[in-house]
Every structure is written in C-alpha cells, then in structure tokens.
Design goal:
Layout (H helix, E strand, L loop, with lengths): L5 H10 L5 E6 L12 E7 L5 E5 L13 E4 L3 E4 L6 E4 L2 E3 L2 E5 L6 E3 L6
Antiparallel strand pairs: 1-2, 1-4, 2-3, 5-6, 7-8, 8-9
Length: 116
C-alpha cells in the first residue's frame, strides 16, 4: 500500500477537523456493520490520512485514505433556544422534522434546513 504524502495528510486534516460530522459513502471492510448513510463525528486524522471517527452506532472504525469514502455533512450556525449558545450544528432528520442538539445544554430544537 502506498501511503499519502505529508501534504496530502495535512489537506485531509484541514477537510476533516475534530468534531466535524461525517457520513459513510463506502467502507471496504467486509466485516463492518457500517453502511452508506451511517453518521459519526471525527475524532482525529492519523499520520497515514486515516480519519478516525466515533460513529453514532458505537463503532470507532477509521475511514482509510484511498480505500474508504466518507463525506463531510454541511453545518448550520444556530442559536440554542434554551441557553442562547451559538454553535455550528448538523441538522438531523426526526419523524417531525429537522432538529439540532445544543452541545452546551443538550436541548433539542427544530431548525429550518435549506432546501427542505
């Protein structure tokens, strides 16, 4: 296997900083239960460009550079209706609509998502 250059790893770190929400496009590992559409939060990018992710399902499988495919989810800047905290959040779809969860106080509130 050819490892990516230091410059490529630096680019991956810029694209996927800690805390960013991502979604599986394709995972090459035949033993994983992760499927396209599964979501998680980036923990860090390793020295070989592997993006280490805490998946919502509990897995911590990394996305290997050049093998697996993930995509960064778009974020919205929102203000919590409970505590007033302003943060970048990724809207999640619930049975009643789009919502965000405040990382400060944990409250969930409905948001309008562009294009919906």
């Amino acid at each position: 296997m050819n490892f990516p250059s230091k410059e490529t790893v630096a680019t991956v770190r810029t694209q996927y900083p800690r805390g960013v929400r991502v979604e599986v496009v394709r995972m090459a590992d035949p033993h994983t239960r992760l499927r396209p559409g599964d979501r998680g939060r980036v923990m860090y990018v390793g020295g070989t460009g592997t993006v280490h992710i805490a998946w919502d399902c509990g897995s911590t499988l990394g996305a290997v550079y050049g093998v697996d495919a993930i995509r960064r989810l778009p974020e919205l800047q929102v203000q919590c209706l409970e505590c007033g905290n302003i943060f970048n959040g990724v809207p999640e779809l619930d049975v009643v609509g789009w919502y965000c969860a405040c990382p400060e106080c944990g409250s969930h509130f409905e948001v309008e998502k562009e294009g919906s």
